[in-house]
Specification:
Blueprint (H helix, E strand, L loop, with lengths): L3 E4 L6 E3 L7 E3 L2 E2 L10 H7 L11 E4 L3 H9 L9 E3 L10 H4 L1 H11 L4 E5 L8 H8 L4 E6 L5 H7 L6 H13 L3 E9 L7 H14 L4 E5 L6 H12 L4 H7 L8 H17 L18 H7 L1
Parallel strand pairs: 1-5, 3-6, 6-7, 7-8, 8-9, 9-10
Antiparallel strand pairs: 2-3, 4-5
Helix pairs in contact: 2-4, 4-5, 8-11
Length: 300
């Protein structure tokens, strides 16, 4: 699928987030060519009256001035150096980053301001920025999560058609960890009846341990309107035997209850413990403690 790239300036780089586990997000691009069938962003596209079906990912907005705008925002006296999540709404390392390098520019800005941040990606292109990531990690808290819900070849090809192979992501993770950057694996979304078999889960955890992942977390699929319609259409095409099961499982709800999610998450946690998943970085980059004027005065 060929995508159209629209170069459009932005008025703001940092976005205040509500209802999530973080307060600020940053997205150098809008729209994503990965075209994952389960992408939760499709729900936001529907609410914004934008294409959420097969057309999603065919038009990518490139925020050409995002680095300059970000630097201005980080320089404001009112900015309190809160942590920023890069890639919450679209992958910052999809192929277009190879040309525009806006994500790299944003990381450089965050590094220069010693501002903490985290990155969520499926893109092994991130290894091009290992140098600036390491520099940033020496100044503030930095972490990277590689989304790797499965290593099952068939499931990957059908549900993440525009992404790099999951094992390429693991090789990228290994490169970052060896450079001292904290990198983990997010097994999400795990698909009930498709990618949740014990051997499938263990394959990912074992591979994460071999790559040196500092941690592993998991979550199951949730289907909000927009994502729901598209995912069920893809399910009817690729896994027709699962369609009735999903329609019953997600009837009148977007999120599964603890009775469905807890057993799978507990299993992943047990596998992570069994395989010894923990922070094993040979080099741990830690920011120096801040210099406080009062401390200097007392020392004198």
């Amino acid at each position: 699928m060929r995508a159209e790239y629209r170069e459009e300036p932005c008025k703001a780089a940092l976005n205040r987030v509500k209802g999530m586990m973080f307060d600020w997000s940053l997205n150098p691009y809008m729209g994503c060519v990965h075209r994952c069938t389960f992408c939760y962003v499709r729900a936001f596209e529907l609410r914004a009256d934008r294409p959420f079906d097969e057309r999603y990912g065919r038009s990518i907005r490139v925020k050409t001035n995002v680095v300059e705008v970000l630097r201005r925002e980080l320089s404001r006296a009112s900015w309190e150096h809160e942590s920023v999540v890069i890639g919450a709404a679209t992958d910052p390392y999809q192929p277009v980053e190879g040309r525009y390098r806006l994500t790299r520019g944003c990381i450089e800005a965050l590094r220069d301001h010693s501002n903490p941040f985290s990155i969520i990606t499926r893109g092994p292109l991130i290894i091009r920025d290992v140098d600036v990531l390491a520099e940033a990690a020496a100044r503030a808290s930095v972490s990277v999560t590689f989304s790797i819900p499965t290593l099952d070849e068939e499931v990957w090809r059908r549900t993440e058609p525009g992404t790099a192979h999951p094992r390429q992501r693991l090789r990228a993770l290994k490169t970052l960890v060896e450079a001292g950057v904290k990198a983990s694996v997010g097994m999400a979304p795990i698909l009930p009846g498709i990618s949740d078999r014990p051997e499938q889960l263990e394959e990912v955890v074992r591979a994460a341990r071999e790559a040196g992942a500092c941690g592993v977390w998991s979550n199951l699929l949730f289907l909000r309107p927009g994502t729901r319609e598209h995912f069920l259409e893809a399910l009817a095409r690729d896994y027709p035997g699962q369609l009735d099961h999903y329609e019953r499982l997600y009837a009148r709800r977007a999120y599964l209850g603890k009775d469905q999610t807890k057993p799978v998450r507990d299993q992943v946690a047990a596998l992570a413990k069994e395989h010894g998943i923990r922070d094993r970085r040979p080099l741990r980059l830690e920011p120096e403690p801040p210099v406080i004027a009062e401390q200097l005065t007392l020392a004198v």
